[in-house]
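Ticket #4471: structure export looks truncated?
Reporter: QA, pipeline team
Priority: medium

Steps to reproduce: submit the single chain below to the structure queue and open the exported record.
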Amino acid sequence: MTRVLLATAELDPFVKIGGLGETVAGLAACLSQLGVDVHIAVPDYPISLAANQHWSVQLPAWASSQASVRSGRVPGLGTVHAVGVHNIERPHPYYDPATGESWFDNDRRFFAFGIAVAKVARQLNVDVLHINDWHTATAVADFPNERTIFTIHNLAHQGAADIGWLPAFGDKAPYFEHLGSCNPMAAAIRLSAKVSTVSPRYAIEACSPTFGCGLQDELAARGSDFFGVRNGIDPKRWNPESDVLLPANFSARDLAGKQVCNKELRRATGLGDAPGPIIGMVTRFADQKGIDLVADLVGYLEGIPASLVMHGTGEVELVSRIWHEGRARRSHMSYLPGFDEQYAHLVVAGSDLLLIPSKFEPCGLTQMQAMTCGTIPVVTGVGGLADTVIDTDADPTRGTGFVSGQASVTSVLDSLHRAVRGWRNRWRREAVQRRGMLTDWTWAGPGRRYRELYREVLDDL
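Actual output as written to the record:
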């Protein structure tokens, strides 16, 4: 049985900020079902893990010499190891909730965590170390690179730090230098046996200057050792036939319960009998997600007509702008602040359309969650959105949503107009809904691909 250590800064249900925690948890659960001996390392922020083992690993002096480890078996996931390094404990993993500013010592916190991950992997005698994003990337400085896989979830966040950090990584230091900084993501790309990202289209985009965020040459140089594997979603959490968070259940055979969810969403948001469809958004408020585009186009919705429900949190300025727009346009817009799992499920399942106007999107999960729930996605044609959503006007027999050519107000508005026209035709609408609902968006296929990847790495030794 292959033993794998998945290392991540987030792990659902313990800590989930964006899609990373849900993605790693979904992959871990699938791998466990496929017979892989799964171990997961996550920072002890702390997390509420019922640990039955306590141990430690030695670290370099710059990382405060020691990391504590609490280990416990989590049914359905594998063995989780909560790794405590100096100053990793914070009320938020990445930034100060009071100011919205990144913690000043994120470099030291996560550089130390990455080294601790390598030590834990050695102690556990794993066959393969599978690291995720920059928070774990320094592990390549202290674990056999030929048995390391690196997955990029978002190239925009690289963890680049002062070049003075280079000596901390010994003989691997030259691999960390990139454009005058110490860049752990660059090192992981250069040193890992295989490099993956979370959708095939994003793997192609990442090799271009437009989307490569300065690392396009390093990625292109990896050739066939860099590729994309689409993420999946958890069918236990996202199944409208059994979802206990919804006011009514439904299926592709019987969509009646979806109308109950729609009515409850209208009631909860005060939109009541607002004309036209409900357009939902469940998103992190970040520039990447096109929140500024939404703020610019919301004034046009009343004329379509359609109403918008947004749920999520993130960058203070974007949250403030959407909050003010919602206050000014209460007849056709509602903003549900913060993040609540039940609201998220209600918005995804109760909306008629789901808007994802991302400027770039490595994979995206909400479009797959939406299609599973019979909610038609309206997306920009980038990354994983382009891989998972087929434009219904371009391909009427296979279409599952509506795709805009670019992340602009004009293009997204055009897609919304097309989507609303399609929504008005019940026969066409339900055909699109059922195609999305009957597609397998689970981790089954991606999980098998990663299991094959682990075998390939070991066969190459």
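Status: closed, not a bug. The export was complete when the record was re-opened. Leaving a note from the reviewer for reference: The chain has two domains: 3-232+443-459, 256-437.
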